[in-house]
Amino acid sequence: MRGMYTAGVTDIMIERGLTFDGAVGVSAGAVFGCNVKSRQNGRSFRYNLKYAGDPRYCSIRSLLTTGDLYGTDFCYREIPEELDPFDTETYQKNPMPFYVVCTDVLTGRPVYHRVDKGDRSDMDWFRASASMPLASRIVHAGGMKLLDGGIADSIPLRFMQRTGYEKNVVILTQPADYVKKATPLQPAIAAVYARYPALVKAMATRHLRYNRDTAYVRQEEEAGRVMVFRPETSLGIGHTESDRGELLRVYEMGRAAAESRLDELKAFLDSQV
Predict the structure, then answer these.
(1) What is the pLDDT of residues 187-209, one digit of tens each?
(2) CB 50 within 8 A of CB 42
(3) Per-residue b/e over 222-235, b at no fewer than 16 CB within 10 Å?
(4) What element of type H or E holds 104?
(5) Which of helix, strand or coil describes residue 198?
(6) CA-CA distance, 115 to 138, in Å (whole number)?
(7) Global pTM?
(8) What is the pLDDT of residues 45-57, one digit of tens each?
(9) ∠ CA 54-73-131 to the nearest 5 degrees?
């Protein structure tokens, strides 16, 4: 739910009519970021505020009965198709490529997949990108077994640069001084995913990649090739926060950050590399 900060930033961008040549989302950045391509301002915030406390959306009951903390059918079918419809028509007409990052559990390596339709098959890719280990079943998509993209590549700036994007806007949900530590859940991960040693290794070294990537982001930021939105202090919100006041607080932090730097953002987008 730190992604509520991201949603606040991107909603300001949508409201102000800012467009981009391409985008990539990881985990919550995938399931919330797709609304940038469908131009659905406020949708991420709206359905999270309404359903975050619903046991069909996220609950231990769902985890015990289905293997998914976030209910697959409710989150990836009922909400986007019935309760708060995802605008697939606008999504498909928008020429901006949107990529999601997943982790291949057999190799432990990132998978970068372009999602162009926003249909049920693409929902599987969004879900895979956001499927946290130990809290989700492995997702089958594209002939692969996949989990949360943040395991293999939490900040895919290098991917975007390799793809040809020379100027990038990066939205982070941790402050600049944040240093990721090794997960204390590694013994449980090793036990549950014993059949997938590459995944276990990727989880054991995830913090090293994350810290290396944040250092690279700072380097590119200083060089003027990247503009970064990040909170000044820890957001103080958990992965599965359902308190509406807390969701609103973090969302408003993202909006305020984008509003305060809107002129800077426009100048960056208009500048030459």
Answers:
(1) 999 999 999 999 999 999 999 99
(2) no
(3) eeebbbbbbbeeeb
(4) strand 98-104
(5) helix
(6) 19
(7) 0.96
(8) 999 999 989 999 9
(9) 85
